[in-house]
Amino acid sequence: MDLAMIGLGKMGLNMATRLVRGGHRVIGFARSEESIQAAVKNGAQGAHSLEEAVKMLKAPRVIWVMVPAGQATDETIEKLSNLLSKGDVVIDGGNSNYKDTIRHAALLESKGIDFLDSGTSGGVWGISEGYSMMVGGKAEVVEKMRPIFETLAPAADKGWGYVGPHGAGHFVKMIHNGIEYGMMQALAEGFNIMKSKKEFGLDLAKIAEIWRYGSVVRSWLLDLTARALEADPTLSDIEPWVADSGEGRWTVAEAIDHDVPAPIITLALQMRFVSRDKENYAARLLAAMRNQFGGHAVKKIE
Description:
By secondary structure, the chain is an alpha/beta fold. Helices cover 52% and strands 13% of the residues.
């Protein structure tokens, strides 16, 4: 199947490469010439504008969008709505907010253009391991795009599927990422407690490797934890600053909107905020308050 991949960041480039290897003709477009050339080197054909990418495809066209959520996706969908024709298909495989996705679907479908939202997980490992894809939209359109999803997935019948109407794919991916926050935080806290037990001299890399087999906490996240600890057990070269993609925030907001308790995911998100606070004014103020009411010692910066 022919398609255009719009956006050639690490994940977009890897997906394009996996599709090429699976026998698909892929047109790659990105704002960076370097990214376009990387796609060409991996077997794709390069386009130097959105218009050119569309023209290089025969109708009905398939466009897979892998650009950052928000304004970049809004602008890309808007441009595509004016370039594509009835019967063409746009797939948003990025991390768009599902509410934006519903709006994008309405815009495209008003012009007869089909739309799917594919919540996509797999990161840098997807090119070799395959991607997990949660697809929203019309079931009959998903079926037409089956060859693409089967190529990108770990297996034709594993790791991907139709989950519901427009927006459902990105909604499920949002919750997936919220769960991921909680799992990551639990692993980090557990290993931190073990690290603090100095008298046992625990080998954290070895423990992670033990847990990978037979343990009830075995997981891909644990596999990656083991890799990181094997490479650098002290993690001394890594700054304790943790970003969030936005989907954790959206998950927490959704929980609040629906009166659903989600304390673990919420606290995991808050801990990411804590990691960025080098000033930590709140902690300084807590220390000052303890000194005021109890005369507790305050550690001064030397």
